[in-house]
Amino acid sequence: MLKVENLRAGYSGDDAVRGISIEVTEGSCIALVGANGAGKSTLAKTLCGLLTPRGGRVIFDGKEITGLSASEVARRGLCLCPEGRRVFGPLTVEENLLLGAYPRLPSFGPFRRAASGDLQRIYAMFPRLRERRSQQAGSLSGGEQQMLAIGRVLMANPRFVVLDEPSMGLAPLVVKEVFEAICSLHASGMTILLSEQFAKIALVVSNYAYIIERGSVVLEGASKGLAENPAVMSAYLG
Amino acid sequence: MDAKYLALVQMAVGGGVMGMAYALVAYGFQLTYAAGKAVNFGQGELVMLGAFAGITLSGIGLPYWAVVPGAMVVGALLGWFIERVAVRLALKQRNEGWILLTIIVGLFALSSVENIWGREDRPFPVPWPAEALDFFGISFTWSELAIVVGALGMMTLVELAKRYTMAGIAVQAVSADPDAAELCGIRSQSAISLSWAVSGAAAAFAGTVIGPVTTVGPTMAAALTLKAFSVAVVAGLDSGFGLVIAGVALGAAENLSGYALGSGWREAPGLILLILALALRPQGVFGKKIIRKV
Ligand SMILES: Nc1ncnc2c1ncn2[C@@H]1O[C@H](COP(=O)(O)OP(=O)(O)OP(=O)(O)O)[C@@H](O)[C@H]1O
Ligand SMILES: [Mg+2]
Questions:
Q1: Which residues of A86-121 are buried (b: 16+ CB within 10 A; e: fewer)?
Q2: Host H or E run for residue A237
Q3: Which positions of chain A have pLDDT values less than 50?
Q4: How far is the CA of A234 from the centre of ligand 2 (A)?
Q5: HSE-up of A196 (CA within 13 Å, CB side)?
Q6: Which residue of B has its CA nearest to A152?
Q7: Which protein residues have a CB closer than 5 Å to ligand 2 (ion)?
Q8: How close is the nearest chain A Cα to the Cα of B103, in Å?
Q9: Which end of chain B is more exposed for a tag (fewer CB within 10 A), N or C?
Q10: Any residues with CB less than 8 A from the CB of B131 and at least 6 apart, and which?
């Protein structure tokens, strides 16, 4: 479903992603693991069009999407839930969710009616968001903001979601809650690319994983095998 | 009431009415600043062009109620155009060249107006009577009433659209976090274009309500840009109806200082306000936002 070929990308200096190739088949959950600064977020941002690649190709659904803007990529169903959540702080929880469905909603017409089915679906998944739907997103707790960020991505009815560091800055109990949501999403058939520093949990929820170090894939394999390999765990994942 | 006191109040009210117009023009700065972190330093020229468009449309026989929306369409197209040809390119280069470019576009508009319509001031035709209304001894004209109602109505309408349409919420999202907005499938560039078009329409609308009070000529532009900019800087470029308070205060102060010190001092409060605001904001008017862009 998604094929990344020899992708290179970076910021002002050297490449932060130095020729990464990965493949994701429909319905799978693939993990990207690696330490701080390995290049996972850079890869995620480049896939989704926030960064322009310096080389390589991204193919989604058989069509090349390399270099398209993030909004075009999102409209094709490849949606990123960015690192650090990036909810729209001054807007309400419900407005944040509605924005996730933006391309489908009438710009000047009655949008709430058009989105109400999808809103109910997200609220059923995250009841806490329903309770807080008219609260400013910036005033939510970290865990609630992460739920909102995931809910916002799901409002797009994506065919593929990239989750970047969903556990970042969350208490262990909240991390568990977030990952339960990710698991049930995967169980419902969603294709997921999960970028995660917290390798143990990422290898539990994923089918297959790529280990990234200094901008390159250093190891890949079935998640189960990687998790059971003590050498891998200590060498790459601390 | 004491006649002298009443005269002062009368002057303050007249100035405050003009201040509402400054607030409306300043509101145009806020609109584009929120979405794209840039403003049009030729906003006063847009007001003037809106007024001339209105005069021209009345000249060909359109009724007032068609003239105002017609001028707003012209303003919207001009606002959109300025962003498209000048501001976007400079921001792509990640520099502040847009400041100069919007000033240049404004000067170009000004000389075009002088060539087409000439330098003399013209009246702006309105359908209501010229006589003044009396409100507890304070008199004001229908045209002044139109400024107040028009400015408040226009700002309220746009604010409602920002909150209660998906397009408006998307513009707010772009101003909060353009990358996250893109990830939602919002074309942030379209949101910025929209905000420039609305800002241009608001400026042209301002022209159609200011014109009947001040008459319309090329000289109105620069003064309006400066005053609206002072108001926007004092009230903050980010948002809020603080603009109305700052605008009314400035307008009233202008009239009162003109009265107390002589008409040559009318412009003093605006300049003092601007200098004070700039001095009290050492990080610059555009502050951190621009630095983040660079
Ligand atoms: N906005 C930026 N500007 C410049 N350099 C950046 C930027 N973001 C990341 N980098 C650099 O790119 C490299 C890869 O960073 P990236 O964020 O992709 O790592 P990561 O694997 O996501 O790390 P983490 O687990 O901490 O999120 C790092 O060396 C980092 O310093
Ligand atoms: Mg990261």
A1: bbbeebbbbbbbbbbbbebbeeeeebeeebeebbee
A2: helix A230-237
A3: none
A4: 20
A5: 25
A6: B184
A7: A 40-41, 83
A8: 31
A9: C
A10: B141
Q: In Å, how far are B45, B197, B232 from B35, measured between CA atoms?
A: 21, 12, 16
Q: DSSP string spanning B125-165?
A: --SS--SEEEETTEEEEHHHHHHHHHHHHHHHHHHHHHHHS
For chain B, the residue count is 294
Residue in the structure block whose two tokens are 């400066």: B226
Cβ neighbours of B127 (radius 10 Å): 10
Q: Is the dihedral of CA B165, B168, B170, B172 positive or negative?
A: negative
How far from the centroid of its chain's Cα atoms is residue B101's Cα? Answer: 18
CB count within 10 Å of CB B175 equals 25
Give nearest CA residue, ligand 1 atom 3. Answer: A11
B251 residue type, one letter = G
Distance in Å, CA A235 to ligand 2 centroid: 20
Which residue from A minimizes the CA distance to B194?
A107
pTM for this model (two decimals): 0.90
Angle at A56 between CA A52 and CA A62, to 5 degrees: 100
CB contact under 8 A, A69 and B177: no
Q: What backbone phi and psi angles, to 5 degrees, belong to A63?
A: -115, 140
pLDDT for B284: 52
Question: Can you give the C-alpha Rg of chain A in angstroms?
Answer: 18
Query: In angstroms, what is the span from residue A36 Cα to ligand 2's centroid?
Result: 7
pLDDT digits (tens, 9 = 90+) for B223-271: 888 888 888 888 877 766 788 888 998 988 888 888 888 777 877 887 8
